Amino acid sequence: MRLILMGPPGAGKGTQARFVADHFGVPAISTGDIFRANVSQGTPLGIEAKRYMDAGEYVPDEVTNHMVRNRIDEADAAPGFLLDGYPRTLAQVTELDGMIEFTGHRLDAVVVLTVDSEELVQRLLQRAVTDGRADDTEDVIRRRQEVYLEQTAPLIEVYRERGILVEVDGMGEVDDVTARIFAALDEIPQS
Ligand code: AMP
């Protein structure tokens, strides 16, 4: 199973990614988590990524693509994977297509969580209190929403045209959202 989980910052991707990945027995690959791990270890990748992350901007495609390619090449991702937070730009879509095609597989589905924008900001401000993420200040939250709308929202139409888009209402309780995702994915054929 090869899945993408998409949605604006604060839509609950990270939480749902873990449930969905466990259910299908594939690793959840979160580019944000990999960047944050590199930042906390002070690696060259982390040092480069941090200045973009702190500003709410995207890390350059070449850097991100290279990192994802290496992660997907690891043995645990051979049977499949769930990508959380990648692709986020049209250039990343093309790059991911190449990576998957190379292995002779296909993308099974792209799940998009939809949440209204006021709820998103409230969730992120709450996360700032509980998790203390450096990029959860109000200005950066706002910038991340803008960047999502400009650069990532257009990907929804790309995947819709391919017939693999699954839109799920991300509002409400975590368990209810998980149940909606499973119900929607039950409809699609697994590879
Ligand atoms: P996330 O945890 O998914 O919200 O990601 C946190 C930050 O990591 C983002 O605001 C970006 O700065 C960076 N990032 C994560 N994934 C990507 C990506 N696919 N392309 C570029 N930057 C990314």
UniProtKB/TrEMBL annotation:
Q: Which GO terms describe its biological process?
A: AMP salvage
Where, by residue number, does AMP bind?
Answer: T31, R36, E57, Y58, V59, G85, Y86, P87, R88, Q92, R133, R144
Enzyme Commission number(s) of this protein: 2.7.4.3
Instruction: Kindly list the places in or outside the cell where this protein is found, as annotated in its UniProt entry.
Output: Cytoplasm
SUPFAM superfamilies from the xrefs? Answer: P-loop containing nucleoside triphosphate hydrolases
Its Gene Ontology cellular component terms are: cytoplasm
- Segments for region (NMP): 30-59
What domain of life? Bacteria
Tell me a Gene Ontology molecular-function term this record carries.
ATP binding
Query: Which Pfam families does the annotation name?
Result: ADK
Q: Which EC main class describes this enzyme?
A: transferase
Q: In which pathway does it act?
A: Purine metabolism; AMP biosynthesis via salvage pathway; AMP from ADP: step 1/1
Q: Could you tell me what reaction this enzyme catalyses?
A: AMP + ATP = 2 ADP
Q: Which UniProt keywords apply?
A: ATP-binding, Cytoplasm, Kinase, Nucleotide biosynthesis, Nucleotide-binding, Transferase
Q: Which InterPro entries match?
A: Adenylat/UMP-CMP_kin, Adenylat_kinase_CS, P-loop_NTPase
Question: Would I find Transferase among this entry's keywords?
Answer: yes
The residues that hold ATP are G10, A11, G12, K13, G14, T15, R127, G172
Q: What does this protein do?
A: Catalyzes the reversible transfer of the terminal phosphate group between ATP and AMP. Plays an important role in cellular energy homeostasis and in adenine nucleotide metabolism.
Q: Domain text from the record?
A: Consists of three domains, a large central CORE domain and two small peripheral domains, NMPbind and LID, which undergo movements during catalysis. The LID domain closes over the site of phosphoryl transfer upon ATP binding. Assembling and dissambling the active center during each catalytic cycle provides an effective means to prevent ATP hydrolysis.
Its quaternary structure?
Monomer.
Task: Say which family it is in.
Answer: Belongs to the adenylate kinase family.
Spell out the protein name for this chain. Adenylate kinase
Q: What is the lineage of its organism?
A: Bacteria, Bacillati, Actinomycetota, Actinomycetes, Propionibacteriales
